[in-house]
Amino acid sequence: MKKLLSMLLAVVMVVSMFACLGASALADDIPTITWYMVGGGQPANYDSWKAKVDAYLEEKIGVHLDVQCISWGDWGDRRSVIVQTNEPYDIMFTDSGSYIGDVNMGAFADLTELIKETPGLTDVIPEDYLKACEIDGKLYAIPAYKDSSMTQYFVWTEEYVADHPEYADAHTLADIGPILEAVHDETGDVFLMNKDGISAIIGNKYDNFGTGLPTIGISYTSGENKIVPVFEQEDVLADLRTMHEYFNAGLINSDAAVADEATGICALGVAQGWPSAAKGWGEGRGCPVVVSQFEDTVLSNDTVQGSMACISASSEHPLEALKLLELVNTDSWLRDALAYGEEGVNFEYVTDKDTGETGVFKLNTDWTLAAYTQGTFFDMTLEATKYEPAEGEEAPAEDQYVVPENYYVNEVQVQNENATPSPALGFIFDATPVADELAACQAIFAEYKGLIQTGTGDPDVEVPNMMEAMRAEGFDDIVAEAQSQFDAWLAG
Amino acid sequence: MGRTEGKKRRTELAPKKRRRWTKDDTELTLLSLPTFVWYILFCYLPMFGVIIAFKDYKITPGAGFVTSLLKSDWVRFDNFKYFFGLRDFPQILRNTLLYNVAFIILDIVLPVLFAIMISNIYSKRKSKTYQTLMFMPHFMSWVVVTYFVYAFLITDKGLLNALIRALGGEGINWYFEPKYWPYILIIMHIWKSIGYSMVVYLASITGIDSTLYEAAVLDGASKFQQGRYVTLPSLKPIIIMMFILSVGHIFSTDFGLFYQVSRGANQPLTPVVATFDVKIYQMLTSNSVSLGKTAAASLFQSVVGCITILIANGIVRKVDRASALI
Amino acid sequence: MAKEKKMHQGDGVTRLNRIKPATNAIFNIFFLVLALACFLPIVFIFIISLTNNDVIRRQGYQLYVTAETFSGEAYKYLWGQRQTILHALWVSVYVTVLGTVLGVALTTLMGYVLSRREYRLNGFMAIVVFIPMIFGGGMAASYMVNSQILHLRDTMWILILPLAVSSFNVTITRTFFRTTIPDEVIESAKIDGASQFTIFSRIVLPISKPVLATIGLFLAFGYWNDWFQAQLYISSDNLRSLQAMLNAMQNNLAYLTKNPTALLSTASDLKKNMPQESVRMAIAFVVAVPIACVYPFFQKYFISGLTVGAVKG
Question: Measured between CA atoms, how close is C160 to chain A, in angstroms?
């Protein structure tokens, strides 16, 4: 009895304690900027890292930084509740998926005027790229200027294509056929994909200008300013038919349309990035890989919006937050601290044994923040590797390091400059008049995506099925609405 | 029996409705207070969120969620239109209802039957073992279940097709043949829940006074008659309660079963596996469907569930007042 | 077996009142098949966790492990992570035990009160319990209340409190108390001058072990298998339970496969963060084992043939 009573009492006390806990606002002269980003969760040495970064930031721009790194899997739900309930934050990582919806909800601050106070940002980020993030002529986000264009690669297992050097010239889906078949015959391995299939079939040719609906789009190359039903275009259908042939020939994994992931050794995969990224892809696959570019590099609103930083409409320190972003994009020390972690714990600065260039040598893989969510890549110190003497050579007494050539400048920047821009770059579609139709069509696309984009289903059957379902939900109205807005944008 | 006497007493008390507040009432109130507080904090405080369904939610800069919500525009029933206007609404309505009718019936008939059967097995140790093993599926999340269903059904590498081929048949493309899926889903549902749902009935069977059986034996009742006239009537209140509760969820479905086991409810399976919860999940994760529309769809589910539960409860009340829920 | 026989010999009527041996045999076979159908998939998961990943990828899933297809890689991986896993296990156990105790207390209290028909506020309380069964404020509103009013975010309590009571469980206890506890018992106790507290703790609880076990079991499973609370509210790794860890692994994988940019920036850490199929199965197995061992502890109350009290109806 007594036990029971004391237990009840404890429960009541606990409950009332929580009710009493009020907001515990700290009085602090130095504003703290709270920054939510996605990554591998809070790093273990976050506190000691924060102490160093705060000291640095206090001196530079007079702020403290509070990074909240939410792990990949939690991000979707967590981001949406934080934004919806307007929980206090200053900077929020955003990508094209949620950007327009959140702006429409009124979550983010208008930075159009404010950005004039931070010339560092406008110097680093090309005007086109900022334009690509505008909605109704207002800027709500600072894009991270990095691989802001999109280049797709065929990723081949090196060992398998050693006897097929022609892989290097395979740039289209039709090109890869003979090599794929030969490799499949020799090894039994396939063109491995998951249920998202090869979205580049469409993404390389048509820009869906931020609708999130790949069945609608405008051609990068045709030169006609016409918005079309993408899956009914001959070039796309031809590719889809090729895929279906490969599937029927057993060159694609038979479970592609229902597979969640596509990892492990395989003949071929498709990835987005730049040539030097192949090293990382190889590590992911578990064997060395070689790449050939899959069609052209393209540039659209979507590719720019792959990583952006937005400032809360309720932020008490929007200017300080923007200044922080400016510093991230211009200051190497801070950039490295965010990307690589704490000096001496997560990484150390080293110099190249020949060129004397400074590089970053990672001491471990404990740093969990993701560099791509934070800012530009072009002020980041490159990652160095330990020098491995060739066979027969004498090992050096001390560790020596090799800093690679700057692939951000040599590869990524070159890609960005040579990208084919979409005719709709900077055109932001206002989906409000057709919001319900668009949402319904997106849901239909999600249903058919696996079947069509993996080659599992016959495109001459499934595409008409999908388009019929979409037309029943008002697909043509979306096309008409988009066309009229686009024409008005071209005229204005 | 106690219950009939209780009934009598209640009818006697019925006329003098305004009873005085007694010491008993105070004590019972104190006993229920912690749980009552819990309900207020975790169920009733968040309840204001329901009004999102009638709002075009916009954030007011500098204000919290509640203020923003209150300041947003009322759009009356606009948010409901999207959900009802969907091309496949009739289809998901049909799926949801048919699966639930099947589940409600099977979830009562099978566990009750199995619970009675298993309680009659001679060896208590064996019956204990069976029960433990039958409970196993409940230890696995749908994600894990999805993995091994996949391992069984996948066309080339799957175990089931390997078996069919070994027996001389031809492999079936399970994930691309909608006609098998209603059976697969129903079997998986029963498989995962049977051990779990038996527990409630077993606990009640255990609670049945053994003298009732002794009396029945003395009257010459066969084992079957005992089940029919002693066990079942004793289980009636709990069966009715489970029935009413599941009727309240007739517009809700187990998301994990329908979405994950079917690997995303995609074509060509969509027509037979898409239910309300699958649709609502898609709305929730879609960036072009506003918060209000999703809330409206969930609210619709709740309201219809509430109506069906009240109707079921009303009917039960008419027939047997003591078994009614409220 | 011998012990059981002895037990039954004492009770002549029970012994006479058995099903026919043939029926018993049929029932045994029936449940044996059913039990195997339910149990073999777990064995199967264990087998996958011991199978070489390359074999799975090339030859498909295997029903048995041979020397060629065996790989202890998955468990080696888990052993390497033992510190994290042991901590997550501790969180799971802590949350499950504390939550189950708290939940059983809160549930049975309300269930008992609702079972008292003469209670003045009975109708009101029934409605208080009934409404949340059907209506909820949605994820955003709950998040707002839990994090901004109750300040439970990133604390142990957010894993415990919101799951402690469910109207379903309250209703089960209410029905159980109503049907199995004779009013006379309570009436006579009252006449003896016992307060409701005494009646509840001294009379009702001791004879309600089957329902306490049922609710305890349901709650324990709810706590053990919950990952959603962690996904929404927990940032500190030291508050992640085993199930939440498993779920986070799956979700991280899903996010990274869907976002090429993210995948790119973490490609070199891929091996560390992306567990292979066998590892995931190994974790699923490790998650299931401890709670499976707890089941028999609850079970003894469902099967032991306990009769309710001394008072006969």
Answer: 12
What span, in angstroms and rounded, lies between the C-alpha atoms of C109 and C182?
Answer: 18
Residue B122 sits at φ, ψ, to 5 deg, of -55, -60
Class of residue A313 by CB neighbours under 10 A (exposed 0-12, middle 13-18, buried 19+): buried
Residue in A107, A438, A472 closest to B87 by CB: A472
The pairing of beta strand A401-402 with beta strand A385-386: antiparallel
Shared domain for B168 and B268, answered yes or no, is: yes
Helix (H) or strand (E) holding C44: helix C21-49
Distance of alpha carbon C81 from alpha carbon B41, whole angstroms: 38
Q: Is the pTM of this model over 0.95?
A: no
Q: In this complex, which of C102, C144, C151 lies closest to A18 when CB atoms are compared? A: C151
Residue in this structure with the two tokens 């030291």, named with its chain if needed: C238
ipTM value for the complex:
0.82
Domains, chain C, with CATH or none: 21-71 (no CATH), 82-303 (1.10.3720.10)
Measured between CA atoms, the residue of chain C closest to residue B152 is C61
Separation in Å, CA C8 to CA A141, A251, B59, C5:
78, 67, 70, 5
Q: Is residue B1 part of a domain?
A: no
Residues B125 and B248 in one domain: yes
The token duo for C41 is: 């998939």
Q: How many CB atoms lie within 10 A of CB A322?
A: 25
Residues of A in contact with B176 (CB under 8 A): 257, 456
DSSP letter for each residue of B179-213? GGHHHHHHHHHHHHHHHHHHHHHHHHHHHS-HHHH
Do residues B161 and B36 both lie within one domain?
Answer: no
B222 close to B247: Cβ distance less than 8 angstroms? no
Structural domain that includes position B33:
20-76
How many other C-beta atoms are found inside a 10 Å radius of the C-beta of residue B108?
A: 18
C115 within 8 A of C178, measured Cβ to Cβ: yes
| CB contact (8 A) between residue C237 and residue A38 | no
Q: Is A24 helix (H, G, I), strand (E, B) or coil?
A: coil
Phi, psi (degrees; rounded to nearest 5) at A29: -75, -35
| Number of domains observed in the structure of chain B | 2
Whether C64 has its CB under 8 Å from any CB of chain B: the answer is no
Q: What is the pLDDT of residues B230-261, one digit of tens each?
A: 888 888 888 888 888 888 788 888 888 888 88
Residue B81 lies in a domain: yes
DSSP one-letter code for B45: G
- Cβ distance B60 to A106 under 8 Å? yes
Claim to verify: residue B153 and residue B274 sit in the same structural domain:
yes
- 10-residue averages of pLDDT along chain A (492 residues): 51 47 52 90 88 91 91 84 88 87 89 90 87 87 86 89 88 89 88 86 88 90 89 92 92 85 81 80 80 89 87 91 92 90 89 85 84 85 81 74 82 86 86 86 89 91 93 92 92 82
> Which residue pairs from A316-320 have beta carbons closer than 8 angstroms and sit at least 24 positions apart in sequence?
A316/A31, A317/A31, A317/A33, A317/A63, A317/A90, A318/A90, A318/A109, A318/A111, A318/A114, A319/A114, A319/A117, A320/A31, A320/A33, A320/A61, A320/A62, A320/A63, A320/A90
- Contacts of C among chains (3+ CB pairs under 8 A): A, B
- A290, containing H or E segment: strand A289-299
- B84 and B70 in a common domain: no
Do residue B84 and residue B38 come from a single domain? Answer: no
Domain termination site, one of B31, B53, B76: B76
Structure tokens at A462: 């499934």
For position B245, which CATH number holds? Answer: 1.10.3720.10
Same domain, B219 and B141: yes
Q: B156 and B49 share a domain? A: no
Task: For helices C82-115 and C209-225, give the axis angle rounded to 10 degrees.
Answer: 140
Best CA proximity match to C108, nearest among C183, C219, C215 = C215
Structural domains in chain A plus CATH codes = 28-145+304-336 (3.40.190.10), 150-302+427-491 (3.40.190.10)
